[in-house]
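Proteins fold reproducibly. Take a tokenised chain:

. . .
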Amino acid sequence: MKDFKFNKAGTIDCYINHKTLGMIPTTLAPEKSQEIIDSGVEIAPYAEPVKTTEQLRGEVIAELSALDASPRLIEGVLLGNKYSIDKLAENESLKAVLRDKLAAI
């Protein structure tokens, strides 16, 4: 076994060397995970997956669509047009959320 790392569930993902398939990914059962932890082997911490630009754009489009925003307004927001963002979001908290999401794109 190699490349140990914690997963979101708190157990361990790693690779095992299979006789015919070679190195294959697997998730260890909780009992086996505890054995590995107790053995002192180095285990990488869990890291949240990084969202792609397309995933973030999809989230913004979904949120704006839920607000019944027009396609033109959504396009303006995605392009970072300050007027579109301000026009869409009359309240400051929504503007802040949209600006944060757009900054990540």
Remarks:
- The longest strand covers residues 12-18.
- The chain has two domains: 2-39, 53-104.
- Strands lie at 2-6, 12-18, 22-27.
